[in-house]
Write a structure and sequence with these properties.
A five-stranded mixed barrel has the order 1-3-4-6-5. The protein has one helix and six strands, in the order ββββαββ. It has a single domain (7-111), classed as Nucleic acid-binding proteins (OB fold (Dihydrolipoamide Acetyltransferase, E2P)), CATH 2.40.50.140. The radius of gyration is 18 Å and the shape is globular. Helix content is 7%, strand content 49%. By secondary structure, the protein is mainly beta. The longest helix is centred in the middle third of the chain and has 10 residues, at 59-68. The protein has one helix at residues 59-68; strands spanning 7-13, 18-21, 27-40, 46-58, 74-87, 93-106.
Length: 135
């Protein structure tokens, strides 16, 4: 039986990333991403709807996200959707869906240092064009 759990989002970082470590010493970074959807109501009124996602990155990707991402940056995150449940201090059952990222691409170049993977000869600071986005 085949199944697929894949999420892709593009949006702006809503707060500074938070990095912590598991008891085994593995780094994990989480950050919030806001996506917007603009639509027109049946009455002809244009509205904008914002959806917030929590993105979680592990190990080397967590370190890179913590080092290079800042509030307001445009980011592409790809991964799987994971829903966790727990019981709150008030006894109520709670749940939260998170995007567990396996790929994060920094889409803008505002005040960003080049990533180690970027080639040294690529010093062009031109704006990102739609055809540069890899999907």
């Amino acid at each position: 039986m085949l199944s697929l759990n894949k999420v892709m989002i593009i949006g702006n970082i809503g707060s500074e990333p938070e990095m912590r470590f598991t008891p085994n010493g593995n780094p994990v970074t989480s950050f919030r991403v806001a996506t917007n959807r603009v639509y027109t109501t049946p009455e002809g009124e244009r509205r904008q709807e914002t959806e917030w996602f929590t993105v979680v990155a592990w190990n080397r990707l967590a370190e890179q996200c913590n080092q290079y991402l800042t509030k307001g940056r445009l980011v592409y995150a790809e991964g799987r959707l994971h829903t966790g449940t727990w019981e709150g201090q008030d006894g109520q059952k709670r749940s939260r869906a998170e995007v567990v990222a396996n790929r994060v691409i920094f889409l803008d170049r505002r005040e960003a240092a080049p990533l180690p993977e970027e080639r040294a000869e690529e010093t062009d600071t031109a704006e990102l064009e739609p055809e540069d986005i890899p999907f």
